[in-house]
Amino acid sequence: MESKSYNDKICWFCKKGRHEECMKKIPIDAASEGPHDCTFDTKLVDCQCTH
Ligand SMILES: [Zn+2]
Ligand SMILES: [Zn+2]
After folding, report:
1. Which of 8, 26, 37, 43 is the least crowded, having the fewest Cβ atoms under 10 Å away?
2. Rounded to the nearest whole angstrom, what is the distance from the C-alpha of residue 34 to the centroid of ligand 1?
3. pTM for the model
4. Cα distances (Å, whole numbers) of residue 15 to 6, 19, 41, 51
5. Domain extent listing, the chain
6. Would you say the C-alpha torsion 18, 48, 31, 36 has a positive or negative sign?
7. Which residues have C-beta under 5 Å from ligand 2, the single-atom ion?
8. For every one of its 51 residues, what pLDDT tens digit does the chain have, with 9 covering 90 and above?
9. How far apart are CA 20 and CA 42, in angstroms?
10. CA-based angle 32:34:39, to the nearest 5?
């Protein structure tokens, strides 16, 4: 089943259907053009899953 929008961010566990293990916060890699040799490019978004 295709997701209709990639703006709906859900965590890795919810994608797998393991909602009990939902992380609530998802670290996502910022799409940066420059070299990222540190983790500061990662930001957290809330899991959008409505279990
Ligand atoms: Zn979920
Ligand atoms: Zn989740």
Report:
1. 37
2. 33
3. 0.58
4. 12, 8, 23, 11
5. 1-51
6. negative
7. 11, 14, 22, 47, 49
8. 554 555 578 998 999 999 999 999 988 776 656 665 655 667 888 999 998
9. 24
10. 65
